[in-house]
Amino acid sequence: TGRRWIASVSSDAGKPTLVAQKATKADDLRGQAEDNPMVQAILKTFPGAKLETVRRKGEQTSVLAGLAGPPGEEPPPAEDYPVDDDIPESEF
């Protein structure tokens, strides 16, 4: 980073890790979805159905959607992408 870093030790409790914060947020979102009357009606109408993934409206819904990089950033030029000749063959 080109900057000095300072680390300090404290006996105070810290914040949960980023992974734990994300998991808590996901659990809260799932709970909200499960409590939604529309979701309950759908699950009741389709026995055996279950919630797989819960997303907020407007969130990226495809793994490929985030590959281009941050909004406003240009994608790499086409010549930077691999072509079939660059990919080694594998034996199956």
Question: Could you name the key traits of this structure?
Answer:
flat; mainly alpha; 2 helices; single chain
Task: Write up this protein.
Helices cover 29% and strands 0% of the residues. The protein has a domain at 15-44. The chain is built from two helices and no strands. 0% of the residues are buried. It has helices at 18-35, 37-45.
Walk me through the topology:
Layout: H1 18-35, H2 37-45
The total strand number stands at 0
Helix content: 25-40%
Helix and strand composition category: mainly alpha
Overall form: flat
State the distance separating the first and last CA atoms. 44 Å
Provide the succession of SSEs: HH
- Rg estimate, integer Å: 22 Å
In summary, what is this structure?
The protein is an all-alpha fold and 92 residues long.
